[in-house]
Design goal:
Elements (H helix, E strand, L loop, with lengths): L2 H71 L13
């Protein structure tokens, strides 16, 4: 075998090894990104649920404020209407 053929074979082997290493690195990074996206999606879902709960609580408080304001407007004596339970 000639020196050129050996050199060509070595070049092909090096290029193949570099490609395999690059593919492994890209796959590892992709898995890391996929895991991060999954974790972030779970966090977003959790935060949306929390925001929904807080909005519901705010609505209950706003309704109670309306009840108290009506109680005052009608000049009713104490005690005020009972506070709603969550």
């Amino acid at each position: 075998m000639s020196d050129a053929a050996v050199f060509f074979g070595i070049c092909i082997a090096v290029i193949g090894a570099a490609g395999a290493i690059t593919a492994a690195v890209v796959a590892a990074r992709q898995k890391g990104l996929t895991d991060l996206v999954v974790a972030l999606q779970a966090e977003v879902t959790s935060l949306r649920a929390e925001v929904g709960d807080l909005r519901d609580e705010r609505d209950v408080h706003e309704e109670y404020i309306d009840v108290l304001r009506q109680h005052i407007a009608e000049q009713k004596p104490p005690p005020p209407p009972a506070r709603p339970r969550r």
